Amino acid sequence: MAPFFAGVAVAVFAAHAWCTPTSQNERRQTTLPSFVNTYVSLAPIVYLHSTENYFPSDLGAQLANTQPEINYTVVSGAPNPLTLDNLDSLNALGGSSIYLTSIDDTTSNPQPQWLKGVIPDATGKTNGAVSCSIIVCDYGNGTVDAYYMFFYAYNWGGEVLGLNFDDHIGDWEHTMTRFSNGVPQTMWYSQHGSGEAFEYSAVAKYNGGIRPIVYSGNGSHANYATSGTHDHTIPGLDLPIGVALVDYTDNGYLWDPTLSAYYASVSFPSGTTPVFAAYDSTTPVNWLNFVGQWGDEQYQSNYPGQYDVFGQYRYSSGPTGPEDKDLDRGDGTCPSGLPDPCIIIPVLLPGEKV
C-alpha cells in the first residue's frame, strides 16, 4: 500500500461510463484542519472479501441511477437531476417515506454495472468513486467521535438453505472510533442493524501500525474485527461457527476509505437535529440531511423473483443514510436503542482468526 499522508485528504470526483460524473472529472484536494488529521490518520483499513462482487460505490452515481419514489410512484416536484447538493430538498416532499429507486431493472442478468461499485486499486483507492464519508462529532469536553461511513450500491444478503435473502439497493455501513483528548479509546463495528464494540487496544492494526483493521462481510458488508466465519443469527452476537445466517471475511481486497472520501463535522446545537458542516467551501454536505432511504422499497410479492419465508424476503428495502446512525452518542460507544446493553469487548473473540 502507498504511504498515507495525514496532512492531505483526497476526494476524487470522476465519471464512469455508466453514470453521471460527480463533479465533471475534477480531482480536488482538501487540506483539513490539523486536529481532523488525527482522526484521518487513525481511520480504519478495510479488507473486502476475496470473492466480493459488490464493491464500494460512488455516492453521486447512486443519485444518477435512481429516482425518488413513494409507494412505488415517482415523487412529483423533485429536482432533476438529483445531486448531493439538492438531495435534502426531498425532505419536504415526503422525507422518510421516500425511496431512491433504481431506474434500471436491478434483477436482470447481468445486473447494471453501477451496482457493482469500484474495485480498489493497488493503493486501496476507489478511483472515480467517492465511497466514504468521515464525520467528526466533537462534544467539547475532550471527547470526539469519528464516524467512518462506507457506501455500497448493492447489498447481497447471502443464502440460507440455498435461498437468497435480504438483497437490497444501497448499503450504508460504518465504524466509529471514540477519542479522549486525541487518544483512541473504543471502536464500534456496525453489523446488520446491530454490531460490536471493542477497546481500541484490542483490535488488530494494519501492518502492526496504528490504523485498525475492519473485515467486511462478503456481500452484506457487515463490519467485523476478525476474519473467518461469523454467524449473526442472534442480533449483536458474533459466533465463529456457522449455523444459519453467516457472514464470511478474509484478507481479500484492501480498501483505504480515506483516499476517496468526503469530510464533515456534525453538531447538535438544538437537541436531536444534526447540523453538518464541511471543512471547506466546496465539499457537498446537504445530502447528509436526507432522511429517506438510499434504495428501492421492498419489492411487492408479485415482483419477479420475490419471495418470503417466515417474513424474511429475498428483496428488502434500502437503508437510511448517515443522518440516521445515532451520531450523538453522548457517553456511549454503541448506538442508542439497541436491545442489549453496550459491552466494550477488551479482547478479540476466541475461535476466530485475525
Describe the structure.
This protein starts with 8 loop residues before the first strand and ends in a 9-residue tail after the last strand. It has 354 residues and is mainly beta. Strand 7 and strand 8 (143-155) form a beta hairpin. Mean pLDDT is 88; it is low at 1-29 and 350-354. Strands 20-19-7-8-11-12-13-23 form an eight-stranded mixed β-sheet, covered by helices on one side. Strands 15-14-3-18 form a four-stranded mixed β-sheet, with no helix packed on it. 4% of the residues lie in helices and 31% in strands. It is globular and about 55 Å long. It has one domain (16-345). It contains two helices and 23 strands.
For the secondary structure, the number of strands is: 23
Q: Strand share of the residues?
A: 25-35%
Counted by DSSP, the helix tally is: 2
With strands numbered from the N-terminus, the spatial order across the biggest sheet is: 20-19-7-8-11-12-13-23
Could you say which overall geometry the principal axes of the C-alpha atoms support? globular
Task: Summarize model confidence as the mean pLDDT.
Answer: 88
Termini, distance in Å? 19 Å
**What structural class should be given to the helix and strand makeup?**
mainly beta
Biggest sheet: strands, sense, closure?
8 strands, mixed
Can you tell me the number of structural domains? 1
Rg result? 19 Å
What is the chain-wise order of helices and strands? EEHEHEEEEEEEEEEEEEEEEEEEE
**Which ranges are low-confidence, i.e. pLDDT below 50, for 5 or more consecutive residues?**
1-29, 350-354
